[in-house]
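I'll show one example:
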Amino acid sequence: MFAVPNLPPLPSLLPLVAAAEAARDDGAALEELALRVAGAVIAALVDPPKAVPAPNARDARRVTETLRRIEAFNGFKAETPSPWQLNRGGFPGG
């Protein structure tokens, strides 16, 4: 019936994974979770996720600029600059 017996890692399923971990020792909670998982699987199969649009030129430019700032900031050292440093100009050339 199914070409591949699994679902992709959908963001909508993440809460169910967390709930399964929390309920692993509680039979009643696991039973309820099984129903929620079944519903989520049906919803995912009926309404597959839409394709994510490719980033536009502006977004690609922003990502490239940010990567260049990170590289200029620390020259590939183990420490990565904080978002505060990147946004507030606490980096070379900023």
Q: What stands out?
A: The chain has two domains: 1-52, 57-87.
